[in-house]
Hints:
The chain has 111 residues and is mostly helical. The chain has 5 helices and no strands.
Amino acid sequence: MTDESLRQTSALVKQDFDLTEAETAQSEAELLAVLAERIAQMLETQPEYLFSMLYRMDVLEEKIRPVLDPAAPEPPNLGLARLVLERQKQRVATKRSIKTEPLEGMDDWAW
């Protein structure tokens, strides 16, 4: 991940999960660790809110189920953090690849 992609992904994660440590993440691994810690807290105290956030981020249920399986190879908080980072990196890539032109004729509209 490039520095700019890391910065943008960190900003999205910080915004969604209210993380101050995300600002100082120097690598994707550090960001993953901070996010996994926050998700572990949310699984304990706010599981409904966490799953609501995952739904709004469009993290697919088909990917969430195997991560939450007791036989999963890693703890659920780490697996969910990986899914969130994957999704947020996709969002950053999409924003970079799709540029919208400013709307014309909107000058007369009063907001």
